[in-house]
Design brief:
CATH topology: Cytochrome p450
Helix content: 40-55%
Organism: Streptomyces albipurpureus
Structural class: alpha+beta
Distance between the termini: 62 Å
Number of domains: 1
Family: Belongs to the cytochrome P450 family.
CATH architecture: Orthogonal Bundle
Strand order of the largest sheet: 1-2-3-9-6-4
Number of strands: 11
CATH class: Mainly Alpha
Protein name: Cytochrome P450
Shape: globular
Length: about 425
């Protein structure tokens, strides 16, 4: 194991810099095929905090331990969200692929202290105005519309035609955007690019287009408000600027779409491949809710989250963290930390996972509840409409997207008895 506290020598990286020998490049086939095994190997090699290299060999730290992730997320005085603290900015090119994640924006994601409480308070109250029964009704209607499009064929690819589309349509409806229009579909595509760029994609350009579409939405709601999240944010007593609302809406929609889509698809995969569920869901002995919760523990949609930035020199998991270092939250690794599951059995019946993060900057209440409504409705409606649905390929033929951030399938092909409604 590399000693990351040894003094710097010559012209090499400074003491404590994760690039100082032994750091692991975050990426590659390991993350696509078996990230859980990779996290176990990293934990054995480095302990609960590992030195890593991001795109372009930019050094950072990956926090693998449950206790350590909980500590980071509950100590904003030591690990803050304002990325302008980063000591690596001189090495970051303008077109760096992770710029949409770390480039400072006037968004709730990067605010701190009283300003974060003000911004998060607006989001919380705007989301609290969403009627969960009405959301379930919207989600069910959207689900039926999507299923109608492929139910008669007897075959479908659920990631693209169902799991990806449903939460986006529900999210934009919550925010007051018209569902099903060309602008909405382009927004879906660009959000996917910013969160999980494929070869040939330009995530920076996609993010600019996302901003432009949300700016137009805010402008429209200024002149014609309605019973939606955007309008409630506009009339809130905190009096956020249009720019602040645009940025915070992007955060809301992005969080509602990509992670929820992967949550839906990962749960469907579990139901279709695990005999505990495949044999028992229809009999009521194991519930869809249990499957949804197990996925949050074992295949959480957001594997890793970038990040936090050290406010000052400190120790974490036996590592010397320097002021301005970037700390990546290893949510998936933390959820399977053997320190909390010493016998190797994940107690999926409880909900103490870190899939929605933790602390002041966790997913704001009631966002996790709304995501659960969307995901649960999506899964239950599909099983109700297509009760004999089965996987269209062998389980080992399913492939995961090569993202170190999101955990999701490239496709989920299924077959079923054709249904004409």
């Amino acid at each position: 194991m590399t000693d990351l506290t040894e003094p710097a020598t010559g012209n090499g990286p400074p003491a404590g810099c994760p690039a100082h020998g032994g750091a692991m490049r975050l990426g590659g086939l390991e993350f696509q095929q078996s990230p859980s095994e990779l996290y176990r190997a990293m934990r054995r090699e480095y302990g609960p905090v590992a030195p890593i290299l991001l795109d372009g060999d930019i050094p950072a730290w990956l926090v693998l331990g449950y206790a350590e992730v909980s500590y980071v997320t509950s100590h904003d005085d030591l690990f803050a969200r304002d990325s302008r603290r980063w000591n690596q900015w001189p090495s970051i090119p303008a077109d760096w692929p992770l710029m949409p994640f770390v480039g400072y924006q006037p968004s709730v994601l990067f605010t701190e202290g009283a300003e974060h409480q003000r911004r998060a308070g607006v989001i919380t109250q705007a989301l609290e105005g969403v009627d969960q029964f009405e959301l379930a009704h919207w989600s069910s209607r959207i689900a039926h519309q999507l299923i109608d499009a492929f139910a008669g064929s007897g075959r479908a690819e659920l990631m693209g035609s169902y799991a990806h589309a449903l939460p986006m349509r529900a999210a934009v409806q919550m925010c007051g955007m018209p569902a099903g229009g060309d602008d909405t579909e382009e927004l879906v595509r660009d959000l996917r690019i910013t969160l999980d760029a494929h070869e040939g994609d330009d995530p920076v350009a996609a993010y600019v287009r996302v901003q432009e579409r949300i700016q137009q939405l805010v402008k429209d709601k200024r002149s014609a408000p309605g019973p939606d999240v955007t309008s409630r944010m506009l009339v809130h007593s905190a009096q956020l600027s249009d720019e602040e609302i645009v940025q915070d809406l992007i955060s809301i929609i992005a969080a509602a779409q990509q992670p929820t889509a992967n949550w839906i698809c990962n749960t469907l995969r579990l139901l279709l491949t695990d005999d505990r569920f495949a044999l028992n869901v229809s009999g009521g002995r194991l519930s869809v809710g249990q499957a949804l919760n197990e996925v949050l523990w074992l295949d959480t949609p957001t594997q890793n989250f970038i990040g936090r930035w050290a406010v000052r020199d400190t120790q974490l998991g036996g590592r010397q963290i320097r002021a301005g270092d970037c700390v990546v939250l290893g949510l998936a690794a933390a959820n399977t930390d053997p320190q909390i599951w010493p016998e190797g059995h994940i107690g999926a019946e409880n909900s103490a996972h870190l899939s929605f993060s933790n602390g002041e900057h966790r997913c704001p209440y009631p966002a996790p509840l709304l995501a659960d409504v969307i995901a649960r409705t999506a899964v239950e409606t599909l099983l109700e409409r297509l009760p004999d649905v089965v996987l269209g390929v062998e389980p080992e033929e399913l492939t995961w997207r090569p993202s170190i951030w999101m955990r999701g399938l490239t496709a989920l092909p299924v077959r079923f008895t054709p249904v004409v409604r």
